[in-house]
Design brief:
Layout (H helix, E strand, L loop, with lengths): L1 H14 L3 H18 L1 H21 L3 E2 L4 E2 H31 L2 H6 L5 H30 L8 H25 L9 H15 L11 H7 L3 H13 L15 H22 L9
Antiparallel strand pairs: 1-2
Helix pairs in contact: 2-6, 3-4, 3-6, 4-6, 4-7, 4-8, 4-10, 7-10, 7-11, 10-11
Length: 280
């Protein structure tokens, strides 16, 4: 009887979908839920475009010696900020709220592998980030004469900056979700550091106008390098004169973003919790 039961259990386990299949299903569910919240959809996609329009309208003059305008710099900067917003900020807030509402505890009690939950979040982040980036590029090329890469090398550079930046920021978002003590404090805990990083990383204020100590602090985090790398993709080489090093530093960008991917994974493994601190 015991042997029969064990064999039946083995057959049942064999019929259970794997983490990858469950992750795809979870991702589809996350995307459906996202688009059902119309206010969230409008805010997610309109926010960077509105800020791009405002800053480009105020500081859109031509930049001497670079062959570019400030508006074109802001397009690249807002794409980088959009990547971090849809990954770091969105995951940090949503996971913390789900933990506070005991959604994570209930999921942990089901047979679903933990990896499937995170895969679902990754699919949501990837989907929204691709759409937002496409919208910003359309806006930038239409209104501000931003030129898309003319060769495969440029698109490959864009691809690895996008993937490494999205991965590192997503892992940091998962890690910071464990910091808030409750869902009520989540927005303040996550949004404040992201807002500060945008100012000291050259998103809202161009790097040539930032003091050295701000640039030094910003260089510790991935957003500054994403901004710099995307400027290198969408702006002419002459514009690199405004960078602190006088070049795009693609090699250093790759190393820093890869290091944040590894460091973010370590932080997630060390800090992630399925329950609130008060739940024991």
């Amino acid at each position: 009887m015991t042997l029969t039961t064990e064999r039946a259990g083995d057959r049942t386990a064999a019929r259970l979908p794997g983490a990858w299949s469950l992750g795809l299903h979870q991702g589809a569910q996350e995307i459906r839920q996202f688009f059902r919240a119309r206010e969230q959809v409008v805010f997610t996609f309109a926010f960077p475009i509105v800020f791009l329009f405002l800053f480009a309208s105020i500081f859109g003059d031509a930049m001497e010696g670079t062959g570019t305008t400030a508006s074109q710099h802001y397009v690249a900067s807002m794409i980088a900020a959009g990547i971090m917003s849809t990954s770091f900020q969105s995951l940090g807030i949503s996971i913390a709220i789900e933990r506070d509402e005991h959604v994570l505890r209930r999921l942990r009690a089901t047979p679903m592998p933990p990896a499937a939950y995170f895969l679902g979040k990754v699919w949501l982040v990837l989907f929204t980030c691709v759409l937002e980036t496409a919208a910003l590029l359309l806006f930038g090329t239409t209104l501000y004469d931003v030129e898309l890469p003319a060769d495969l090398s440029g698109w490959l550079t864009f691809g690895w900056i996008f993937v490494l930046g999205l991965t590192g920021c997503s892992l940091l978002g998962i890690a910071i979700s464990s910091v808030p003590r409750s869902g009520k404090s989540t927005t303040s805990v996550v949004v404040l550091p992201f807002l500060v990083l945008q100012f000291i990383s050259g998103v809202y204020i161009l790097v040539d106008a930032l003091p050295d100590w701000m640039l030094t602090i910003g260089a510790v985090f991935p957003l500054k390098w994403m901004v710099q790398g995307l400027r290198g993709v969408f702006l002419p080489d002459a514009a690199a004169v405004l960078e602190p090093a006088g070049s795009w530093e693609f090699g250093r960008i790759a190393l820093v973003l890869a290091a944040w991917c590894v460091g973010g994974l370590v932080l997630c493994l060390l800090t992630f919790r399925w329950k609130n601190r008060d739940d024991g």
